[in-house]
Amino acid sequence: MPRRITIVPHLSVNQLYSKYREAQNSVARSQYQILWLLASGKKTEEVAHATGYSVQWIRELARRYNRLGIEGLGDRRQNNPGAKPLLDEIQTAQLLQIIQQPAYDGGLWNGRKVADLMSDLLERPVSPQRGWEYLKAMEYRLRVPRPENQQADRIEQEGWKIKITGQLKELQQKYPDSKVELWAFDEHRIGLKPIYRKVWIPWFEVPIAKIKWQYKWVWLYGFVCPESGKTYWWVLPKVNSTIFSKVLEDFATYFGLGKNRQVILVLDGARWHTTKSLKIPEGIHLELLPSYSPELQPAERLWPLTNEPIVNRFFDTIEELEEVLLTRLKESFNGTAKIY
User: Fold this and answer.
1) Is the pTM of the predicted complex or chain greater than 0.70?
2) How confident is the model at residue 330 (pLDDT cuts 50, 70, 90)?
3) Band of the pLDDT at 339, cuts 50, 70, 90?
4) Could you count the other beta carbons within 10 Å of the beta carbon of residue 280?
5) What pLDDT digit, counting tens, does each position of 292-306 carry?
6) Which of 226, 199, 242, 229 minimizes the C-alpha distance to 340?
7) Are strands 179-191 and 217-224 parallel, antiparallel or unpaired?
8) Which of 175, 184, 196, 85 is nearest to 138 (CA)?
9) Are the C-beta atoms of 268 and 186 separated by less than 8 Å?
10) CATH of domain 156-339
11) Average pLDDT of the chain?
């Protein structure tokens, strides 16, 4: 037979009901509801069905209330300090100091190696998972470093940032009735040599990417406006000043550059970008990046995105790759793509 729990009358049934209806906190509301139902003569199983709490928890709450009254209610989790940390403050500081240096085996830090250090500090085994948790707790994150050429001139780079801002203002003053924009341009070589990336996969499976090594390439010409996000693309078989002149002409025609629209185009100092034979249409003003400074090139951020549909797979022909690439460019970017 289901049992009824006797509730000590610290509060009357009506008072418990009022507390239940007036409670602002969800935990307090649920607890007063349980006690009100029990005090009203409901069986434990009936209260469990009505509130969604287990019979065991309802009995524990009733025992606490009978013993302590309303002082026994409330959410006590906030007063629970939790388990004692594995490392004290001094040991944590020692660990942080050590991992700021190269790993002891000459490799890279990971959860297992940090756990090994913690084992030495505590003189007992520590699981690799705890090492990973401490890395995250110390606000360390796994990141791929951005390459920075040691030949780059930091002073020149900072000066270039100031310079490009000034040139935009000067161009706007020179053409007060024109729309002035900043665009960036770069080329990216892709081909039949496979590109690999990490993928999400069930833990019990091993990811496999089928490959077919071939050394055939095409060039992706990419324009991007950092402010608006607009892009413009060409897929071409090679790079040279003649092709680049045609691409610039097409870009200028498509966006109506000239008297009413001016563009400062940021690009690197490749020889086909700087040759005297290059034909620069009206409305385009080329601005070269400092040497060894790809990190200043906004167009560099495009290539991980354009590579996504072709990673971890192979293509029999360049034409197959181009078809997949063009679909990606047209559907995933706010821009126009063309192929030659």
Assistant:
1) no
2) confident
3) low
4) 14
5) 999 999 999 999 989
6) 242
7) antiparallel
8) 85
9) yes
10) 3.30.420.10
11) 89
Q: Which of 32, 58, 31 is nearest to 46 (CA)?
A: 58
Q: What are phi and psi of 245, to 5 degrees?
A: -60, -45
Q: How close are the terminal C-alpha atoms of the chain, in Å?
A: 84
CA dist., res. 183 & res. 267, Å (int): 9
Cα separation, 108 vs 99, whole angstroms: 10
In 3D space, the residue among 37, 32, 40 whose CA is nearest the CA of residue 48 turns out to be: 37
For Cα atoms 139, 144, 146, give the angle at the middle one, nearest 5 degrees. 110
Phi/psi at 212 (5° precision): -150, 100
Q: How far is 285 from 262, CA to CA, in rounded Å?
A: 8
Side-chain-side CA neighbours of 13 within 13 Å: the count stands at: 7
Pairing status of strand 261-267 against strand 217-224: unpaired
> Is the Cα torsion angle 8, 11, 17, 21 positive or negative in sign?
negative
Would you call 198 exposed, middle or buried from its count of C-beta atoms within 10 A (0-12, 13-18, 19+)?
Answer: exposed
* Domain spans, the chain: 13-79, 89-137, 156-339
Backbone angles phi, psi at 171, to 5 degrees: -65, -35
C-beta of residue 283 within 8 angstroms of C-beta of residue 257 = yes
Calpha distance 307→224 (Å, rounded) = 16
